[in-house]
Amino acid sequence: RRVSSVLNRDVKHFGKQHLFDGSEETCWNSDQGTSQWVTLDFPRPVKVSQLHIQFQGGFSSRLCTLEGCRTGEELVKISELYPQDNHAMQISFPRMRFQLEETVLDKLRITFGSSTDFFGRVVVYHLGVLGERL
């Protein structure tokens, strides 16, 4: 996993490890900027079926662009999601449904193109990618 930035470079408190730690006390907090992103490199190909994401209200993204590819290929746009600006867990199905049934990926990038925060910061408490390992 890689992220575009970390608030004040404070990796210990706001780093990418907090995206998947399962704790409601920790989060990934980006620094300022117009476009933030998270890239996931899978150790083997996966077929992604759902995306779960929990933002902090006031620091969410109005638009999430999903891109993916196989190893050695360029990222291609898969879908756009329009999350709500709240602290609730948001799931790609059924409210933000996107179709990935035919897409096998080794890499997934989620770009947060438009933050609800004036300075462009994004705060994510939980990120889950569900699917099938191939």
From TrEMBL:
Family stated for the protein in its record: Belongs to the NR2C2AP family.
F5/8 type C domain location: 1-54
Pfam families referenced in this protein's UniProt entry, alphabetically: F5_F8_type_C_2 (PF22633)
Keyword 4Fe-4S: no
Gene Ontology CC entries for this record: nucleus
SUPFAM superfamilies associated with the record: Galactose-binding domain-like
Organism lineage: Eukaryota, Metazoa, Chordata, Craniata, Vertebrata
Protein name: Nuclear receptor 2C2-associated protein
Record key words, sorted: Nucleus
Subcellular location: Nucleus
